[in-house]
Design goal:
Length: about 130
Amino acid sequence: MINDPIADMLIRIKNAYMAKRQDVKVPYSKLKEALVKLLSRYRFVGEVSAVADGEFTVKLLYPDGKPAITEVKRVSKPGLRRYARVLELEKNKQQLGFFILSTPKGLMTHVEAKKKRLGGEVLCKIW
Protein backbone atom coordinates (compact mmCIF):
# COMPACT_ATOMS: atom_id res chain seq x y z
CA MET A 1 0.00 0.00 0.00
CA ILE A 2 1.32 3.42 -1.00
CA ASN A 3 0.58 6.32 1.34
CA ASP A 4 1.75 9.06 -1.04
CA PRO A 5 1.21 8.10 -4.69
CA ILE A 6 2.53 11.43 -6.06
CA ALA A 7 5.84 11.06 -4.21
CA ASP A 8 6.03 7.43 -5.35
CA MET A 9 5.62 8.47 -8.99
CA LEU A 10 8.18 11.28 -8.74
CA ILE A 11 10.75 9.02 -7.09
CA ARG A 12 10.16 6.28 -9.68
CA ILE A 13 10.92 8.80 -12.43
CA LYS A 14 13.99 10.16 -10.63
CA ASN A 15 15.33 6.66 -9.90
CA ALA A 16 14.81 5.64 -13.53
CA TYR A 17 16.82 8.69 -14.60
CA MET A 18 19.62 7.80 -12.20
CA ALA A 19 19.64 4.23 -13.54
CA LYS A 20 19.80 5.60 -17.15
CA ARG A 21 16.54 3.87 -18.15
CA GLN A 22 14.72 4.86 -21.33
CA ASP A 23 11.23 4.72 -19.83
CA VAL A 24 9.38 4.03 -16.61
CA LYS A 25 5.95 2.58 -15.85
CA VAL A 26 3.74 4.43 -13.38
CA PRO A 27 0.37 3.39 -11.88
CA TYR A 28 -2.43 5.45 -13.44
CA SER A 29 -4.50 8.21 -11.86
CA LYS A 30 -5.86 11.42 -13.39
CA LEU A 31 -3.69 13.59 -11.13
CA LYS A 32 -0.52 11.66 -12.01
CA GLU A 33 -1.34 11.87 -15.70
CA ALA A 34 -1.86 15.65 -15.46
CA LEU A 35 1.40 16.03 -13.54
CA VAL A 36 3.40 14.00 -16.06
CA LYS A 37 1.89 15.93 -18.97
CA LEU A 38 2.93 19.18 -17.27
CA LEU A 39 6.46 17.80 -16.82
CA SER A 40 6.44 16.76 -20.47
CA ARG A 41 5.44 20.27 -21.56
CA TYR A 42 8.51 21.66 -19.75
CA ARG A 43 10.77 18.91 -21.17
CA PHE A 44 11.51 17.18 -17.87
CA VAL A 45 10.16 13.95 -19.38
CA GLY A 46 9.33 12.80 -22.89
CA GLU A 47 6.04 11.59 -24.24
CA VAL A 48 3.46 9.76 -22.18
CA SER A 49 1.96 6.56 -23.60
CA ALA A 50 -1.60 5.34 -23.22
CA VAL A 51 -2.91 3.49 -20.20
CA ALA A 52 -2.49 -0.29 -20.26
CA ASP A 53 -3.23 -2.60 -17.31
CA GLY A 54 -3.67 0.35 -14.95
CA GLU A 55 -0.24 1.80 -15.80
CA PHE A 56 1.13 4.31 -18.25
CA THR A 57 4.65 4.60 -19.60
CA VAL A 58 6.74 7.75 -19.42
CA LYS A 59 9.68 8.19 -21.80
CA LEU A 60 12.75 9.81 -20.24
CA LEU A 61 14.90 12.52 -21.81
CA TYR A 62 18.66 12.91 -21.64
CA PRO A 63 19.66 16.28 -23.15
CA ASP A 64 23.44 16.39 -23.67
CA GLY A 65 23.67 12.91 -22.12
CA LYS A 66 22.53 14.16 -18.70
CA PRO A 67 19.21 13.38 -16.98
CA ALA A 68 16.53 16.08 -17.46
CA ILE A 69 15.62 15.76 -13.76
CA THR A 70 18.43 15.92 -11.23
CA GLU A 71 16.39 16.45 -8.07
CA VAL A 72 12.80 16.38 -6.93
CA LYS A 73 11.37 17.35 -3.57
CA ARG A 74 7.84 16.69 -2.35
CA VAL A 75 6.60 19.83 -0.57
CA SER A 76 2.98 19.13 0.38
CA LYS A 77 2.57 15.71 1.96
CA PRO A 78 -0.54 13.80 3.01
CA GLY A 79 0.18 14.48 6.68
CA LEU A 80 1.10 18.15 6.21
CA ARG A 81 -0.40 20.09 3.32
CA ARG A 82 1.45 23.21 2.14
CA TYR A 83 -0.41 26.02 0.40
CA ALA A 84 0.90 29.23 -1.17
CA ARG A 85 -0.82 32.48 -2.04
CA VAL A 86 0.17 34.54 -5.04
CA LEU A 87 2.13 36.98 -2.88
CA GLU A 88 4.17 34.11 -1.43
CA LEU A 89 4.95 32.87 -4.96
CA GLU A 90 6.14 36.34 -5.96
CA LYS A 91 8.53 36.44 -2.98
CA ASN A 92 10.25 33.29 -4.28
CA LYS A 93 13.16 34.58 -6.35
CA GLN A 94 14.95 31.24 -6.79
CA GLN A 95 15.47 30.51 -10.47
CA LEU A 96 16.32 26.81 -10.12
CA GLY A 97 13.54 24.53 -11.28
CA PHE A 98 9.82 24.88 -10.80
CA PHE A 99 7.28 24.53 -8.06
CA ILE A 100 4.26 22.52 -9.25
CA LEU A 101 0.97 23.81 -7.84
CA SER A 102 -2.50 22.36 -7.78
CA THR A 103 -4.76 25.38 -8.35
CA PRO A 104 -8.49 25.78 -8.96
CA LYS A 105 -7.61 26.02 -12.69
CA GLY A 106 -5.61 22.76 -12.67
CA LEU A 107 -1.94 21.86 -12.27
CA MET A 108 0.59 24.51 -13.24
CA THR A 109 4.06 25.78 -12.43
CA HIS A 110 4.63 28.67 -10.05
CA VAL A 111 5.48 30.89 -13.04
CA GLU A 112 2.10 30.25 -14.69
CA ALA A 113 0.31 30.67 -11.35
CA LYS A 114 1.95 34.07 -10.83
CA LYS A 115 0.85 35.22 -14.28
CA LYS A 116 -2.73 34.06 -13.67
CA ARG A 117 -2.71 35.43 -10.10
CA LEU A 118 -3.57 32.03 -8.57
CA GLY A 119 -2.41 30.27 -5.43
CA GLY A 120 -2.83 26.66 -4.43
CA GLU A 121 -1.30 23.56 -2.93
CA VAL A 122 2.43 23.27 -3.61
CA LEU A 123 2.85 19.64 -4.67
CA CYS A 124 6.58 19.51 -5.37
CA LYS A 125 9.72 21.28 -6.49
CA ILE A 126 11.57 19.87 -9.45
CA TRP A 127 14.90 20.81 -11.05
